[in-house]
Amino acid sequence: MLELSWDGFIEHTQQGWNVGKPPYGYLAEKFPHPVPARRAEGRTKHRLVPDPERGPVVTEIFRLRALERLGYRDIAQRLNADPVKYPPPVANRAEVTVGRWTVQSVRGILENPKYTGYQVWNRKARKKRGKGANPVSEWTWSAQPVHEPLVTREIFNAVWSTTRARQGSRSGAEPNPHSETLRTYLLRSYVYCMLCERRMFGKASKGLSYYVCYKDDTRRSTADWAAQHPKALWIREKILTSAVHWFFRERVFGPNRHRYLRAQLAAQHPSASASARNGGPDAAQIQQRIQEIERRQERLLDQLAEEDGGDPEASRRFRRGIRERYDRLDQERRTLLAQAQQAAAPSCGPSLAVGTELLNALPQLTPRFAELPEAVQREIYDAFRLEVRYHRPRREIHLQVTVSAATATDLARLTTQALVPGTGNATLDQPCFVRPRQDSNLRPSA
Question: What is the per-residue DSSP string for 238-286?
Fold first, then answer.
């Protein structure tokens, strides 16, 4: 009976029927039970349909998390500021309803994959009375979306990655509430050490701000990077902020951003670019050569089959010669097959087209990032999911932002509101930032 019940829940989910109470933002649409006997008893099944009042609240919660990268508590405070616009959820038991948004209610929405349009079951560990969570590999998903989504799958995945990246870091640009806090760090939570992949933290020394990573000898002393990692790895905040400002001004909002993108994609696909420049064979030509080699191999096999075998010594030499020629042809065929696979691999063409389209969705500006308030800068960095990675042995800074089709429109709106209207912090024609000095001996890599 347990196996039958388990299989029944799986089939129920794959057919798109909801199990349990509809999640916040959805309503249950009733359908007659497909089994005649159950239908005669008045039984029904339910599919999810968006709640016109609460559905937009779910979308806004995901936007605040994915775009502004707010923490659970900050999102709850934002929602509680306007309970009419963002009605709080109601618990299954009315007597335990708190009447406001909490950290747990926000987290429950952001962790629920049903908002992507898929029906999902077995997320909770039933052996622990629903208090534990099963690993994602044990979840049961419907084969395709079965109800109207409130967020895209891309946004949902971005929220999950934000949860891991933000762990242990607070939201906003406000100083740490600790009584001994003296300063803030602009790039807090964005800077990582490329050797140990841990997040670097801000530290002041002799009136200057640095980002520091201490070597972790307790857990990772046997790792490959341990010998390259100094006991304390330091880098000036000014060097990092200069690189970040230049990156956003030139690579994200600047007039030459398409040229930078083409150069980057060409560097990522050097073999395809070199083949195109040198006039190398294309996939069709390689396939023709492979077919010709296979025909020659067939002819060699035919000669081997027609050999009469009169003289044993001559027959051995003949067979050995056939084998050597066949092996040389087969080696050439394998080389061509590898070239054909490489030629068929995605080149920078589609990536360039997609990247160009996404960049075109962003406004072209020359923002004076150095003059912007820290809160505005962090709002933009959060929206673009900035990551700054420092490689000490190579003296390199790697910068990365994320622009997707699901977030491009919101990014354009947010940056335009933050940089353009009446602030005097952005212009459309005047250069306002100088590239970091070359004597810093650091190579910014985008």
Answer: HHHHHHHHHIIIIIISSTTHHHHHHHHHHHH-HHHHHHHHTT---HHHH
